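Hi support team,

I've been running sequence recovery on a batch of backbones for a student project. Most finish fine, but this one hangs at about 90% for roughly twenty minutes before it completes. I'm not sure whether the input is malformed or the queue is just slow. I've pasted the structure tokens below so you can try to reproduce it. Let me know if you need the job ID as well.

Thanks,
M.K.
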């Protein structure tokens, strides 16, 4: 980083800037903590690093607790709520199938739509003639 030009000038009227003191770094607690961390690092002790096995076990325990909570919430649902949920899922599935079929119809080229209409018309005419 380039230093400003006014620092090099010898003008006595200018106030020369100086670094602002950080009150956190000058505090005794911060210095003690920093010294302790440096000593632990030299010894090879890291406060944040846990053994991999311990991390895995904690994760499994957390997952198990979450699973138990979900199961407890499922058990609290009444039969009526369960039936409503089933019907809601069925309706959503039907809507997605319907939307897919509509999108497919919209994406078809025009000549395929006309061909389908002609087939239907021919079938209707043949049915009318037969009856």
């Amino acid at each position: 980083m380039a230093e400003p030009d006014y620092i090099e000038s010898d003008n006595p009227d200018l106030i020369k800037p100086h670094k602002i003191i950080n009150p956190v770094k000058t505090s005794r607690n911060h210095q003690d903590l920093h010294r302790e961390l440096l000593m632990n690092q030299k010894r090879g002790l890291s406060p944040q690093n846990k053994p991999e096995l311990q991390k895995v076990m904690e994760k499994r325990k957390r997952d198990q607790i979450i699973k138990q909570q979900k199961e407890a919430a499922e058990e609290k649902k009444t039969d009526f709520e369960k039936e409503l949920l089933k019907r809601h899922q069925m309706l959503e599935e039907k809507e997605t199938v319907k939307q897919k079929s509509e999108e497919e119809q919209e994406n078809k080229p025009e000549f395929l739509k006309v061909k389908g209409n002609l087939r239907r018309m021919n079938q209707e005419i043949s049915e009318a003639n037969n009856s």
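--
Follow-up from support: It reproduced on our side and the slowdown came from queue contention, not your input. The longest helix spans residues 79-107. No action needed from you.
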